[in-house]
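User: Run a structure prediction on this.
Assistant: Running it now.
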Amino acid sequence: MKLKFRHQSPFKWIERVPALPLLVATIVVGISGCPDPDAAKKQQAREAQHQRELRMTQQAASATATTQALQSQQLVVQAARKEGFDAGEASGRNSALADIAKREERARELGHQTGKIAGELQGHREGLKEGEAIGYAKAAATEFRDGQKQGELYGEIKGRSEAEKEAAKKIELADEAGEKRGEKLGRIAGIEEGKEQQRRESFARTASVVVCVSCCFAAVVLFVVVHREPASALAIRRQLDIDEAIRQERERIERQQQAEREERLLSLLENAMPLRIEKRDKDKSDNSANDDSVVDAEGDS
């Protein structure tokens, strides 16, 4: 490395000398041979600079220490605050839990007392209601028995009166129906009598024919008996069978006629009875409705 100067020096040979050794040699020569008059000032300046740097370093260290102390104090305060907050929170939670437990216990006691009081009141109410119900039931039973007795008496009296009225109505209706039925039966009886007369006449004619035939048959039988003795028993038996058949036929005809007359009478009665039955049922329903209204009125009174 070569030193380069801005202005050309007359000493060109110096350029060939290395710069660093030359500088060192110059400094050594200057220090050893030429004392510097401003050395004391420079020394004082250096000491003052050193003192300033020392103070600045001390101030920086003090500031750093203060900052660290403040930071540590803040950390301690934050830790203490957090610890206090946690402790307060735990204490508050514990106190709140204790308060809640006390409140729950108190509420449970109050609930037991309230339930006990409510149960007693409910029991009293139910007892009163049951007593009232029993009293009402007894009173109702007594009133029912009294009403039943009165109803029986009233029903008996009213039944008698109604029976008398109904009997009178029935008698009137029976008279009217008897008159009408008598007229109808008279007409029917006349018709039946005419038919019976015709039957009797036809029966008389038939009987006369039968008698004639019987007489002829008897004559024949007598003739046979007179002339032929062994056949007499058979002829008599046949005659008896014929007489029995005639008698049975006559009875059958009479029974048939009697049954026809009874059927006609029953049909007439059946045609006349529905109106009476309907009227009687209507009267009974009206009477029962009146009885119920009377019983209700007596029960209300």
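The first helix runs from residue 19 to 33.
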